Amino acid sequence: MPSYPYRTTREDLRIPLPDGTRLSARVWRPVGDEPVPVLLEYSSDRLTDRTAAEDARRHPWYAGHGYAAVRVDTRGHGNSGGLPAEPGGGAELDDGAAVIDWLARRPWSTGRVGLLGVGAAGTTALLLAARAPGTVGALVTACPEGGHRLGGALLATDLHTRLTALVAGAALPPDPRHVGDSWRSEWFARLESLDPPVDTWLAAGESSVPVPVPAFAVAGWGDPSCSFVLRLLATSPDARALLGPWPHGLPEDALPETLRWWDHWLRDVDTGAPEEPALRSWISTRWAGEEVWPSPDVREIHYGLDGALRTAGTSAEDRHVPVRSPQHTGLDAGAYVPQGRPADQPPDQREEDGRSVCFDSQPLPEPVEILGAPTVRLRLRGGGPPAQVVARLCAVGPDGTSALITRGVLLTDGRDATVELAACAATAPAGHRLRLALSSGYWPWVWPEPDTTGYAVDPSGSALSLPVRHLAADVGAAPVSLGTPELPEPLDVHLTEPLTARPERLTVHDIGRHEWRTELSPAGDGTRTHPDGLVRDEHTVTAYRILTGTPLSAQARTDHTVRLERPEAGWDVTVQTRTQLRCDAGHFLSVVQLRALEAGSVVFTREWQHRVPRESTPSTPK
User: Fold this and answer.
1) Cis amide prior to 444 (ω within 30 degrees)
2) How much is the pTM?
3) Distance between CA atoms of residues 190 and 572, nearest Å
4) C-alpha separations of 69 from 66, 86, 262, 533 in Å
5) Which residue would you say has higher pLDDT here, 589 or 86?
């Protein structure tokens, strides 16, 4: 164990809620009676197995620097009592506010609480801060998750996978080592209460989250949360952000900056954290800082689609360029939520470009540094059915290699449209060309529209707007650097990987059937044996299929299996979940299946079917 300013202790306890339910909690705090600020991480992930390894690194480090670091499982998850509540819903937030109040009143607490959350828990932290702004002094959110639509189009990628994992997490039993013989009755109560929130998820669009307390946001470029983080900066004067070259999660390199944030707002230590640039970001090869956001060093540069950017094949009789893509356009999109594996990154985009209409610039005379969210304003022919407008921005090298910079989607009713691309930080080198590629679909990121007509663009009234950072913006600016924390040794969790590893991403083209199939396997697969003897075995496979010319052939499926075992006690339970999604012209159709097994025998099965109207109202022009 590294040497920290405070010696620490760890305690498992149960936090009472007003209705008598008790939530499972693990507390790391300094030894002694001196009150200290509290840092709360409140999540539906199981703290005794799912997040145990991460918790054992992060929270003792915070405790060693003078905090009571508390990790709490939400109601009906892990070893917490009660029945699962809807994630981010009113009941879960009411519980969280009660937990904050209870922690603030502990004798070892100063009454000042900070919130920490990663992914969905990062969104929950933002919502909780709005519930208890008087007690919550500051928060750190990493890669907060947003809604389930992208520019009005329903996400296909990630949505059903997250839904499957959510059902599995809520269906897993408490651990008898922690709750005793009541584990089985609590398990069956959970299973009987489950109701997957399919209707809510399919209807959920992007939402704004108020931030009433000083917020520090962390994300990796390429994570879908980056655009939200920049919007948070633009609207919250007490917010700061760190966007770096990381996958989804809270990187260890960011921990010292989060500690500076806590120390300033919860301990009244002058760490200078609020005086740091509003945005510190990794741009291609280096760190850079923007004192305020939007930055005066970033200006909009406009590229007309009939001037600076041009396409071939425009008819002399018709000024409109038709865009009608095959349904498998998007197979080279890469992962929607990057986890740090090679297959997460989008490959060379030339095949995707060939399925799109491309507008290219001349070779760039000097590098172009992009920081922010590009937009594409399109003048469309109008009068057609709703269509998906997909815009990709690429940098094309002298050898023809096409590297994706960013992309965006908009569901439009055929009128003029403005597509906002995902926020990014990238440099297009001198000698490269900028390429704007337009398509009418992006499977399997978003569900295709029933109509295959596509749309038609008038280049003379259309333009790409890039947020270009001045190449001399760093001259005279203080350098940006991050420290490296000295964390505790990793928890001794033994990972046994499958003997035959599945490919991270496998795509098959059945030429005779005109069918494309893609299969994904996540990084979390394998068997993990924890120091206390618990064995967690987890396997997931996600598959997509579509016929090239038939949008309503699109299907998505995720199979997820989790087995928990304590061999010395003869405890062996398995939860198997499957989610299947498809669509017709007016509805999304889902089937969610659940099986629970004890010692290899099926003890519970259930199936839920949902038929949800598309109700995907086309976006109006901006």
Assistant:
1) yes
2) 0.94
3) 17
4) 9, 25, 12, 25
5) 589
